Amino acid sequence: MSDTFRALRVEEQAEGFGRAVKVMNLSDLPEGDVLVEIAYSSLNYKDALSATGNKGVTRTFPHTPGIDAAGTVLSSTSAKFKPGDKVIVTSYDLGMNTAGGFAERIRVPADWVVSLPEGLSLREAMILGTAGFTAALCVAALEHQGFEEGPVVVTGSTGGVGSIAVALLAKMGKEVIASTGKTEAEGMLKALGASSIADRQALSEVAKAPMLKGIYGAAVDTVGGETLVNLLKQVKPHASVAACGLVGGPKLELTVFPFILRGVNLLGIDSQSCPMAKRERIWQRLATDWKLDLEAITTEVSLEGLEASIQEILKGQIKGRVLVNLAR
Prior knowledge:
By secondary structure, this protein is of the alpha/beta class. The chain has helices at 45-51, 122-145, 160-171, 186-192, 201-204, 225-234, 257-261, 276-287, 306-314, and strands at residues 4-12, 17-25, 34-43, 68-76, 86-90, 105-108, 113-115, 152-154, 176-180, 196-199, 216-221, 235-243, 265-268, 298-301, 321-325.
C-alpha cells in the first residue's frame, strides 16, 4: 500500500482561495478507525462552498472538500470492518472540517461508515451520494406520514436532491409536479417520471393571504424561504411537506393557520447527523425497492475536472448529478 495519494487541496492565499490537485501522505490524514481507498465521490453545493473558502462550511485551510465517498477499506481498527470491505461514507463532518472525498484516501471514525449494501455498486452509491440519501429521507418521511390524495410537488427539481426525489416518487407511482426555473430541463424531468412541470416563480412569489387553495397531496422542498411558505399554504388538509433546503432563505414567515386549520405537517430532514440504524435502512432501500438508474442525469469528472463543475454549481447551472471518478 502506497503512503501517498492525490487530493484536491483548497488553500487560503493572499487574494482569495486557490485549488489544486496535490500529492499527500497518509500521515496528513486525521486520526480515525478506518482507512478507505476512494473509488468515487460526488459534487454537492456544500462542497463548492468549501472549495471556495466559505468559513461557514470549513473553518480551517488547507483542506480537502468532499462530503461523499465510496470505496474499499484498506485497514481498520474496528471489528465492524476489514480490509477489502466496500463502504460508503457520507455526511457527519466529512469534507467540512475533516479531510473529505475529493481524494484517493480518507481516514474516518468507524461510526461514520456504512457497508455497501448488496445490489448497489460503488459508482451507483456515489451517483446518489448525499443528494440521493437526502431525497430518500424526504420520501421515507412522507411515506411514513402518509400521502394525501393529489399530486406531489418537488421544488428545485433539477438539482441533485430534487431530481432524485422526482424519480423516487414516480417509482412509487405518484403523480409528480416538478417545479423549476429551467424550462430546458423539461425533457430530463419527464424522463425521470415527472407528470408535469411548474414554473418555480409561481411558488416563490410572496402571497400575503394566510392560506391558499389546497392543491398538493404532499411536497418535497429543497428551496426554503418563500417557496416553503407557499407550499405549506397550498397542501391539502393533513398533507405533509418534507423540507431539506434553504437556498431561498432560512426564515419561515407565516401564520399557524396551515397547522391548526388544515393539520399540515412540516417534516424537517437532517441527513448530516441521521442515526446509523436509519441511515443503513435508507441505503438498503436505495439498493432494492428504490433502486434507480440515474446514468442519464450524471456527468462524470476527474479530480482535475472538478474546477469547472464547482463554478457551474455555484451559478446554479448544474442539472442532475456530478460524479467524481478518482481513478480517472
